[in-house]
Amino acid sequence: MTQVLVIMILSFVFFSIYFLIKIKNMSVKLTKSKELNNIDNSLEIDYQFIKGLY
Predict the structure, then answer these.
(1) C or N: which end of the chain has fewer Cβ atoms within 10 Å?
(2) Is 5 exposed, middle or buried (0-12, 13-18, 19+ CB in 10 A)?
(3) Are 11 and 28 contacting, i.e. CB atoms less than 8 angstroms apart?
(4) CA–CA separation, 38 and 16 (whole Å)
(5) Percent of the chain predicted with pLDDT > 70
(6) For 6, what's the count of Cα atoms within 13 Å in the CB-facing half-sphere?
(7) CA distances from 4 to 10, 16, 37 (A)
(8) Confidence category of residue 25, pLDDT binned at 50, 70, 90
(9) Which among 12, 17, 41 has a CA at the least distance from the CA of 28?
(10) How confident is the model at residue 11 (pLDDT cuts 50, 70, 90)?
(11) Are 51 and 27 in contact (CB under 8 A)?
(12) What does the alpha-carbon distance between residue 48 and residue 27 come to, in Å, rounded to a whole number?
């Protein structure tokens, strides 16, 4: 039973780190393209909630 709990906790930690890295990469992509091009990014509309996270 404890092995199942450990596996569940490890998988939760892995997926949490994975999704945090994905969100961070998307937010960096949004800010970099806006700074370099000074034009509106099409991804910004779809992922506007990320701007509030950072």
Answers:
(1) N
(2) exposed
(3) no
(4) 32
(5) 57
(6) 3
(7) 10, 18, 49
(8) confident
(9) 41
(10) very high
(11) yes
(12) 9
The C-alpha angle 7, 16, 34, rounded to 5 degrees, equals: 160
With CA atoms as reference, report the closest residue to 47 among 32, 30, 25, 24: 30
b/e string for 9-40 if b means 16 or more Cβ within 10 A? eeeeeeeeeeeeeeeeeeeeebeebeeeeeee
* Alpha-carbon gap, residue 12 to 23, rounded angstroms: 16
Query: What does DSSP assign to residue 47?
Result: T
Q: Which is nearest to 44 in space by CA: 28, 10, 36, 18? A: 28
